[in-house]
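Our collaborator T.R. sent over the components below with a one-line note: 'Predict the complex.' Nothing else. No constraints on interfaces, no templates requested, no preferences about which chain binds where. So this is a plain run: every listed entity goes in together, and whatever single assembly comes back becomes the starting point for the next discussion.
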Amino acid sequence: MSSEFEISRSITIGQYVPTDSYIHRLDPRVKLLLFVVIVVAIAFNTSYIGNAIGLFLSLYLFWASKIPISYGLSGVKPAIPFIIILALLQLLFQGQLFSGGKVYVDYGFILITSESIRLVVVSAVRFIEIIFLSSVLTLSTSTTQLTHSIQSLLSPLKKINFPVHEISLITTISIRFVPTFAIEMEKMMKAQASRGADFGTGGWWRIIQRTKETFPIIIPLFNIALSRAEDLILAMESRCYTPGGNRSSYSVYKTLAKDYLVLLVGLLFAYLLIFYPFPF
Amino acid sequence: MGARPIIQVENLSHTYMKGTPLEHVALKGANLYVEEGECIAIIGHTGSGKSTLIQHFNGLMRPESGKVIIDGVDLSKKKVDVKTLRQKVGLVFQNPEDQIFEKIIGDDIAYGPFKLGLPLKEVRERVKWAMSVVGLDFEQMKDRQTFALSGGQKRKVALAGILALKPKILVLDEPTAGLDPKSRNELLEKIKRLNREEKLTVIFVSHNMEEVAMLADRIYVMAGGKDVLCGTPKEIFTDKEKLQLHHIGTPETVQVLYRLTDLGYKVSVDAFSISEATEEIIKVLHGTKEDLEDVQRV
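Returned assembly:
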């Protein structure tokens, strides 16, 4: 029987699963770049087949990186209500904009056509693909690797005075602390439950009561977050961190032939997703 | 000592993140037996499963395999009234001052009793009682702001918040960690009083052996998710072989006495309270009991 409080289990962002697969060993810059390109490609593709291929690819990546698919699924689970609401809204109100194809329902402002159904299905699948892809990326790449690659990919922007280093630092810190706060939250829920608090009781329509129930968790978490931030500042300052300082890096990434190969295959894949005229 | 078992743990196991690459076994076959009114210390190194074990006592965790029976309630059954259980077993987490969320001390302590659905008058009485037990003046402190308190005072408020539930069993996870020596001694005195005078069954986790020697009737030693040793402080701290086997520290007094025996002096190593140890050391210094009395006269 798993505990009702084990929430850190369902949070996969910012967690690194070291299985040392070849996906783990790829140059993180290549991974990040391909991630961005493929997500864009998926966003462009509106065909059923194209998205089926995208879904297949994201599942394949889980297999290739030796990360159990349950990780990806637990990332999708909390998003399901959003996907459903989004799908319903699109189905009911977007029909007029995508009115091509066969008309199934035409009742007042509601217009459901084969095109609007395609929109609904494709955007739901797209959402899941993107969650899967980002899960694979963060699960197979440590946060340090991610920061370094963000920094190195954005470094051309330094010329126009874009704060590349600061942005990548902020991103890393925020990603790094997601699991930490999940653990803190778990502890806080347990502590408050020990003094009689209950969470998620009462129907969802009793919004005020349910909001009140979260106060005993949210307020202490805020306190903890602030004091942690203060600690972090002190720790960084005592190690002579200066914003904007020029720093070298401990690990230097080398892009090998296999990295270029993967990059090439990935770009080709993205190109096909965007430009190939899928029949269905 | 009441002969009724109030907590019974048999062959309890628990695995975190089961079915993921990050799974790890926290408990494997732990046993524990606590009688009503006892004061039990649980000691052991980090990762030995202490925290996981005590979270089973108030139903935050349910037994994965094995048995947990709290005051006659079997927690491995599917339907357990956790609310009543959590009222009966007050669990104080590590750094409990983090859980304070109300603006005013009185309100924060009253949170639990209100959640029990008690009438205002009863809640007030309980807050008053809880504050007096932890040594906070009700009239003076109840309307103070929580954020302006010192660490030691915050911890008292948090403890009062649990006590206001009027639990029969009080479970504390490292109650004195991070406190200054003065607040630490005060808190230990409070816990001792709760056990001896208010007749609460107390179970606490600690790394501080002086504390353990001072408070506990019995000690459970945990290692690798199991209880490896159990006995009175005398039994545990005098068993040198087992102490070394499980890398258990001893109170400083015992360490000094062990050193003395190693050097060939005849002292009894089971005198671990400070006054007893002093007596032993003075005996060594002066040879005889009469000398000791002389010293005390001087």
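Summary for T.R.: The beta strands of chain B are 5-16, 24-35, 39-44, 65-70, 73-74, 89-92, 169-173, 201-205, 218-223, 226-231.
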